[in-house]
Amino acid sequence: MRKKQLQVLLPVNWNEVSALWYTIRVEGPENSGIELDQSRANSALLLGRVLFYIEEKIEYCLTELGSFADGNSVPETASAVIGIAEENEGILTGLLEILQEQFTEEYLGSEGKITLTLKREGPGALPGLHPVDLQKLVFYLIQLPDGVQKTAAPGSLQADSYCHLNQAELLPDGVHIRICLGSRSESAGRMLADKLCYLTEFLGGDCQKMEQPDP
Fold first, then answer.
1. What is the 3-state secondary structure (H, E, C) of 156-199?
2. Cβ of 158: how many Cβ atoms within 10 Å?
């Protein structure tokens, strides 16, 4: 199995924003990254879906985002701090309840419980991600392939590759993302890595490919 890591940086700009701040947390079951063909949840990508769903209903800004996993594993938790207008408190609470029901139904039978929590942090002024950069980040998270990918490598039969987001963190200079890849076919793995790097560069980011040695 040929393994790679992609180190991604999506640059961002900031504005100071006065809002009512909430922490959103996604918690899923332990996931080693081995059973990637079993519809295992990636908490970071589920958080991306949460942010996308909120974006469709109300305006918000983002000041923090983080999701981490050791080694080659898949993140079990992910969190974000968002700011909203006070009149949208009830809408945000209702949206999280709807998403909790959806995630529970989607992963029933293949997962332990997936939990969404919402914590009110209070009003204040904080640095907020520029709206365009927020849209790019959410687009990236919902477009990332996850799990086993069927890749038709040139000159060979269809080859299984895998891909999952391993870490994501919003820092002052941008969103830092680590993606783990693997494939039994060198050409199939290269095609998948090139696809992800193209997506990154299309959004104005930087993508570095790194070989991952076997343990």
1. CCEEEEEEEEEEEEEECCEEEEEEEEEECCHHHHHHHHHHHHHH
2. 10
- 156-179 residue pLDDT tens: 444 578 888 999 999 999 999 999
The residues with which 65 forms a beta bridge, in sequence order, are 80
Question: How far apart (Å, rounded) are the C-alpha atoms in residues 37 and 206?
Answer: 29
Residue 204 DSSP label: T
Are 27 and 193 within 8 A, CB to CB? no
Name 70's Cβ contacts closer than 8 Å, sequence gap at least 6: none
C-beta separation of 186 from 207 below 8 A: no
| 171 C-beta neighbours (distance < 10 Å), count | 12
The predicted-structure confidence for 69-79, as pLDDT tens digits, reads as follows 877 788 889 99
What would you report as the CA-atom Rg of the chain, rounded to the nearest whole angstrom?
Answer: 18
Most confident of 54-58, 145-149, 161-165, 191-195: 54-58
* Segment 43-77, tens digit of pLDDT: 999 999 999 999 999 999 999 999 988 777 888 89
CA distance 11 to 55: 20
The backbone torsions φ and ψ at residue 112, rounded to the nearest 5 degrees and listed phi first, read: -75, -175
Give the containing element (helix H, strand E) for 136.
helix 131-143
Name the strand (E) or helix (H) holding 102.
helix 89-106
